[in-house]
Predict the structure.
Amino acid sequence: MQLKVYESLTLKVGLCLMLMLTSLAGRAAGIQLQNLRCEMLTDPLGIDVLNPRLSWEITSPARGLKQSAYRILVASQADKLEEGKADLWDSGKKNSDESQHVVYSGKQLKSKDKAYWKVIVWTNDGSTSSSGISRWSMGLLNPVDWRGRWIGLDRAFKWDDEGQWSRLSARYFRKEFDAKKTIKSASVYIMGMGMYELYINGAAIGNQVLAPVPTDYTKGVKYNVFDVTDCLKSGLNTIGTVLGNGRFYTMRQSYKPYKIKTFGYPKMLLNLELTYTDGTTETITTDDTWKVTADGPIRSNNEYDGEEYDATKEMPGWNRTGFDDTKWLKAEYVQEPGGMYEAQMTPNMRIMSTLKPVSIKYLKPGVYIMDMGQNMAGWIKMRVKGKRGTAVSLRFAETLQKDGELFLENMRDAKVNDLYILKGEGVETWQPSFVYHGFRYVEIKGYPGTPKVEDFEGEVIYDEMKTVGSFETSDRTINQVYNNAYWGILGNYKGMPVDCPQRNERQPWLGDRKTGAYGESFIFNNGRLYAKWLDDIQQAQKADGSIPDVAPAFWRYYGDNTTWPGTYIAVADMLLHQYGDVRSVERHYESMKKWIVYMSERYMEKDLMTKDKYGDWCVPPESKEMIHSRDPKRQTDGVLIATATFYDLLRKMENFASIVNQAEDASRYKVLAERLKVAFNDKFLDKTTFQYGNNTVTANLLPLYYDMVPADVKAKVFNNIEEKILVENKGHISTGVIGTQMLMRGLTENGRSDIAFKIATNRDYPSWGYMVENGATTIWELWNGNTASPKMNSQNHVMLLGDLVVWYYENLAGIKSADRSAFKQMVMKPTLPEGLNYVKSSYYSAYGRVVSNWTRNAKSFNWDVEVPVNTTAVISIPAKSGKDVKESGKSASGSKGVKFIKMEDGRAVFEIGSGQYKFTSNL
């Protein structure tokens, strides 16, 4: 048996985050702690929560294995823990199968304290095992713990331009200091706004890029922490930093100031904490003894427009000891950003993979077009050799025009252009530092000689997180759409979930992720990203309760709405269901309640929610050249959408209120929801035709999926959906962002997985397959994204995925958590639409790996299942009887770990514990 130990961390107000820690001890008592790099780019140092939650994962091939008890030991030093001295906390032996989110309940920890821990577990087979040692350490828990001052230069220089297309050069800072004693340990704490690169004695610290993650800097400022012990020496040392603009110095400084929030010029606060071998300490801080210049090689960096790098302006050795900085300026004290200092517990972005170009083609003299073969988000790393002063331009686009030129209209006014000026010293290698691009094609202009594919590499950038899901079927369309979803999702993880990575937008729209976050969680371990995003939403909330459509509120879109701001509640529900993150509910409950009250008091009329802003956004329009439909028959009533959505949100809040022990609130939500339900049916249900509203699929599907439809007419309402899809729409999708969020599950749960399968595998318009048929390698913003107006036809959006990815995993694969159990209990009931012959899938849950691989033919069904230790699953196998099901060649009922429960709807239902199983049945 192996025991993998990891830590589930929280922000100081209780936000749950999950984090793998590195083994310090290796093997202990026959159990090995998996030696994984921390998922967060910074070391697991500098958390700012007093009571982190500890979690661990047990791995074993044994069937039916469960934890029966645990004991957690926490000490202030590793050697103490090795001696069995838990001076911070000894939980004692707890008779419990709990292995997730166990709250640290030991001595109160202070700023910079270190904690080393291990867990001993007992299992139901009589085994006892101990993990290796892991650690965490505390950050700077209070603003007064920070030393020094914010420094920067609050002005532009003569080579900068602060017009509509702002150009502001990067700022380079350096500080030499003398470590007069032998260094035992050292940690650096940094807040570098808008983005930073950090060096000590010339060595880059960490492998993060575009750090830290973006926030509304007037509300919260994230700091990163690094262990830099090995980078320092006794005697003279040098710290160097580069500050880029990021979201702090806004991309368009003088453009629509009434809409776009700005924060000022780049600035920094840094503490380097030194501990010497004699026990004394010293702190190197930012102050006016630092030197700074803006006259370095990064002449401009603007997320929308690109980065300009002049290698002739490089300053060799600037971040090492002994550099002559006499011509540099003295750093100036500047105003702090205004937000609370917060430890960043989400991962930074990093280069997660690389792509080689598939071709470079000559276009015209001096101009070539490079094809990466995949729409990606990141940048190009280039090798080039030429004369000093030669300028090479790289311009980016998602598609090409018919004549082979870049198609740039859908970039709006983003210039998306990087420029590199050669220093002329042999082969030069360059990639930007403070921008990213969304692209497939690159225009190469001014390159000396003939560019070759081996001279370029695409570096794919997104938040560092594990890929936890795999999915493959016998259908090529489903497989390619899944691949497109994978690339689209990762391309839009940028310290927050953005809508697109390419044009002059790149905003964290709430509505795009209401169900999207749920589907994404099956592919990526996105729990910490979305927990952080809940903080962004909370910080964007107005005092009266209003929530914007974009958070952080870089755009001031406080128009009030139900569907977009309601994502706040939906994402908290996803974190609870998929990750068991109760603390996110606890942390955000009052803010969510405040929004519910705000909306109820202002926009409830006759028990209907009247406030809707976007309708069923982006339904397939009547003409492929249109962005939005103008046909009333295709549009769903906004009050219908808002009321049905608000009803669902009230039911979620009812559950949240129970979790946080607010019984009166729960009762109020329930009563209000019932009133909405009655008023909704009175207003929108036609008692003769059993149609809701104007009979769009969305109008009928929302109340049906949210269980608002009277039981005796559910079948008739669903008949209207079937008729609409199969007859009027000829088996095609007709929903937009709202309706698509429950379309595939709604059809399947009402017995028509065949319709869902047809929609999923269509390759003509409108469909996901139509995108594939027309060369898409990500998901489009519009169903007609290849023909609609360039004003809104991003080729890399995820909002139209709806519940497709959820359907892939929960229905086709049959990997589904029982209600809010975070996969401790699972319900595995694969959907078997005609035409689909196999599914191979896996998902790495908090408890471990879940596998569902099934194949079928006309006579038999074969299913390989794997269930993690300390969990159970109720599985449903198509069969004539329980006796017709075999496991590993013998009767399933007689197999270890398998218990027959019942026959239901042509399936044999069993309960299984942990282990690997091979089921077969005759059809």
Remarks:
- The domain at 2-137 is CATH 2.60.40.10 (Immunoglobulin-like).
- Confidence is low (pLDDT under 50) at residues 5-43.
- DSSP finds 14 helices and 50 strands in the chain.
- The CA atoms of residues 681 and 710 lie 8 Å apart.
